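Two quick folds needed for the group meeting slides. Do the first one here.
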Amino acid sequence: MTQPTLQPDFEGDFLLGGGAPFALESGSALPQASLHYAIYGKLNEARDNAILVCHALTGSARVADWWPDLFRDGHPLDVEKHCVLGINVLGSCYGSTGPQSVNPATGKRYGADFPVVSIRDIVRAQAELIEHLGIRQLRAVLGGSIGGMQALQWAVDYPERVAGCFSVGAAPLSAMGLALNHLQRENIRLDPAWLGGNYDPAAQPTRGLALARGLATCSYKSSALFTERFGRNPDRSGEDPRQSHAARYDVAGYLDYQGKIFNERFDANSYLVISRTMDTFDLARGHVSEADALKRIRARVLVVGISSDWLFPPADVHALAERIQNANAVCNYIELHSNHGHDAFLAEASNMRPLIEYIVQSGAPHAQEKDCVGCGA
């Protein structure tokens, strides 16, 4: 029997800067910005049991909704021991200020006028909320994909405020990753219902958004997984691609379904904004060089690559881990062998448990070690 989803002990909103404009790295500013956040468990008296979990592109502050297996009793996010925080990123459609929000300067929704937001902007906003909560140091910052980017940015920008950093399936995007994100955004913009980004939220560019999600789903999975699940089978609805141009193979039916359900829960302009945020991730920003930035890290770091990930190839993730090690930070690299592709950190969450337990609980291994002893990977 499926266990019910764990509900937050607190869920609310935080107004950044008391309502003052929030400056962005792009040179723009949000006249007023707020973050939606959720808390599971309670801070202890010393306020040293807080773990920040950063969500991926289409996730939310409600961490237990999308990473539930990590919250079971005795697992790494056991709320009897830890206070787990989830914070919705700027630009999202799940509560924090984003394209659907009303711009107080104009009285209208931002829509396509929402400015470019960087990972550094997101982390700086999170840090303001964390300080407001009276947390001087986070026990760990965890995340996969764009969440892993945030975890690494935390370790660089706030070295004294992070004890452990766990990043899975994250590195600066390659040219291939940039290309895939570009095509997803173009699918949305080419939908006649996009209307230059000024569509009514009740009349989204659903076809473009569904196509973007379908393409993204291909990049999140692997060829081996698709072969195993779908092969060359006709769509399970009974369609026969050998007899009709309109008929689909099973994999096409799956992608169409993913697009359909995505349209029910996400906003097209938010997709454009956050995918651009992913594109621009660069730890060197604000520093002389990436090496200069990485030398700031004081947290123990665990960087995880996924063998079948072609959006963030394990070679790219491993290379980033080596650069962190070369900066004399305490860093380990683990490669998970999975045919689930980039989505493995969600689809096979059980493999994340010992790795997260390691970064939350264990002492720091020597920076020259290449394997996380005892991680079970």
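Then this one, please, same format:
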Amino acid sequence: MSVAAPGAKPPVASPSVASPSVAAPAQRPALPALDPDTAIVLGDAHAAAGGIEITASALPADLEEAAILFANGQAQAAVTTLRSAIARGTLESSVQQGWAMLFDVLQASGAKLDYEAVALEYAARFEKSPPAWIDPAEERAPVRRAALAAPVVFPARIDGAIARQIEQVRRAVAGKRPIVLDLTAAGSVDADGAALLVEVIESIERSGRELVVLGVPRLRDIARASIAAGRRDPQDASWKLALLCLRLMGEKQAFDDLAIDFCVTYEVSPPSWEPPGATVRTTMPENVAAEPEAPRSSAAVEGNALALRGEVTGRMPTELAALRAHAATCQDVVIDCRGLRRIDFAAAGELLNEVVGLCSTGKTVLFVEPSMVVEALLMVMGIHELADIRRRKI
């Protein structure tokens, strides 16, 4: 599933699919020492390490898409993507990883009947036993967070490069949960980025889907800072974004004032005021942000590792605090992912930032046995370029 990084030795052969290890035993054993049967994914940061085979991410597009969909809580869409890719026969050397990811998603979703049907297909095709279903009652991971919207987090610079986030939003439209656009980190905007945002927000608003746009006041300020009355820029997208923000915030007078400036600048009729749609909000609704009674994830030091369990989503302050405390006591930071069912895109971004910080201080980071679908997301995020990933043993 991977190719050699530039300047590295030829890659080792891709391992065959391993049985999922979603459940954690009552007494989690100490992490075993590395041996030749344990696959390691290493990034460019390890290129100077003599005698180590180095591989870089080269996931097929379908596997990347499925990992992102699952991370954003769209398990059924991830299943559809994986099954379609397997049926088309386009995964080539990554076909076993595709099946492994499919089993992981079905297991994490509690879809036992679908899992058993896929297991029969797998056994018939490969003439070997599929991974065994693990009863959720045997898992130590806490109950998953219910009916929670998966935020699409935008970067500080809103430009044409946000096309990737826009594609995530479009995929989310196919699901049933509220769509959340997190623009709280926005620091600058250009016409290309403004045009993409205006188009996707207005299309969702017209569809009547529940939409939450976070960071609208900040977005309004940076959009207005990029325009000037009387200055006719080649594109008017930043004007339209500023007007959209004012409309979403319900600021009619400010909207009308800016609309007149727009009219004078571009010599066109001023846009008319429309109140925001009933399904569009600029703050998180209580029913979306509510936590279940049981914690959705946990992080605890076990032996020489920090164990992550359950479903890690959002800013993950508790998990990061536990990681920082653990990392302060060791040079080699081990993160046990055997009980981790899912990590969403926002949490993976937070984790990436933390790994960057740890590596900048000279520490090494090792992720132990994440599920194949979680590993795929780590590779999409580029975490494998900084940290090692010990795969599940074959």
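Slide caption for protein two: The domain at 150-281 is CATH 3.30.750 (Transcription Regulator spoIIAA).
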